[in-house]
Amino acid sequence: MAIEYANRIKRLPAYIFARLDELKKEKEKTGAEVISFGVGDPDLPAPEKVIKKLHEASLKPKSNRYPSYAGMPELREAISQWYEARFNVSLNPQTEVLVLCGSKEGLAHIPQAFINEGDGVLVPSPGYPVYNTATIMSGGVSISVPQREEKKFLPDFEIIDRRLMDKAKMLFLNFPCNPTSKVVDVNYFEDVLDLSQKRELIVCHDNAYSEIYYDQKRPPSILQAQKAKEAHVVEFHSLSKTFNMAGFRVGFVVGNKKIIEALAKVKTNIDSGVYNPIQEAAIVALSQCWKECDEFREIYQKRRDYFCAELKKLKIEFNIPEASFYVWAKVPKGFSSESFSEYLIKEAGVMVTPGTGFGQEGQGFVRFALTIELDKISLGLEKIAKVLK
Predict the structure, then answer these.
(1) Based on the number of CB atoms within 10 Å of its own CB, is 62 exposed (0-12), middle (13-18) or buried (19 or more)?
(2) What is the pLDDT of residues 6-35, one digit of tens each?
(3) Which of 254, 288, 322 is the last residue of a domain?
(4) Hey, what's the torsion of the CAs at 87, 93, 97, 101, to 10 degrees?
């Protein structure tokens, strides 16, 4: 009998990065260095005190035991205190906080707690690909919500067919946005929660980039909205970007206790808790590393300012990001997202992410990730400048 993929696997979108990885390897075989603006993987080190705590905690005799699914009480308390200090939002650490193996884990699992076969999920386009794949894997139907330039990269709910809106049970939201870097204020969140209450939507806000911001303009939490306590809303966060702890795989979700409870049930059955020494390191990060975050932001600010000034000279259109370490830029005339990305690898030895990797509405754009050192950014821009001339 032939092995056949499950229908849900067949429905997953093609892996657009496979072709680019292939081209990258071909270019490197020629001896050329490929400068990668492709992956949003922080290159800065985690704070020293975090690494020290991880090492100390790993030497404890009981560190190899199974961790709790919900997370250490001390870490959940640290998360609630961080939210109080950062956003002025009060959380019950026992019922409104759940520790995750990175925020991606929670985002991928939450549709399984609420979505039945054929239920609709509102997915931003362009947006983080996990929202769509998580919907598919749960048996749900992705309802694409365009985030177009003419609408200032905000979700355009009015364009969606009312019959599709009536099917929707869940909404994914992401500000600061990956890939567009769009930031919204609390008033916008109020409007979204008003819509969610009218349509009885569960709102899942991905706030992974809240601490990578510029010019002292701090992005808000959706939980700061007045309607948040009454709404069906949760917010995901990760220590990956905030504290450069991407490889640690630790994040959390906070908000509505009923939603937290349901996600915890999914997690208990198909996942595990975070390694205890990593949880102890996370406590140190959240409670003691505010100064280090300021230093990280200074580095990203320099990178953003330099990159945007140089990109402007190349006559490439883009919006200056207020947050995240991404620059969402238009491709030059005559190119598609894919063809421009391939052209830069082949001709310049520079890798960028095609906008279509984030949904159909990403066509005509590419994403630059500023997660490489300033000298590499400069070299990459020089390479692009040569081939565009």
Answers:
(1) exposed
(2) 888 888 887 667 777 888 888 888 888 899
(3) 288
(4) 110
Is the domain of 25 the same as that of 36? yes
Check whether 254 has a pLDDT greater than 80. Answer: yes
Q: What is the mean pLDDT of residues 375-387?
A: 96
Same domain, 207 and 238: yes
Pair 34, 63 in one domain: no
* Model pLDDT, residue 66: 87
* 237 part of a folded domain: yes
Task: Read off the pTM.
Answer: 0.95
Q: Decide which of 288, 313, 336 is a domain's last residue.
A: 288
Is 2 a member of any domain? Answer: no
**CB neighbour list of residue 235: distance below 8 Å, 6 or more residues apart:** 205, 206, 207, 221, 222, 223, 253, 254, 255
- pLDDT given at position 86: 97
- Shared domain check, 145 and 30: no
Q: How many domains does the chain have?
A: 2
Residue 325 structural domain: 7-45+291-388
Summarised one tens digit per residue, pLDDT across range 261-301 is 999 999 999 988 999 999 999 999 999 999 999 999 999 99
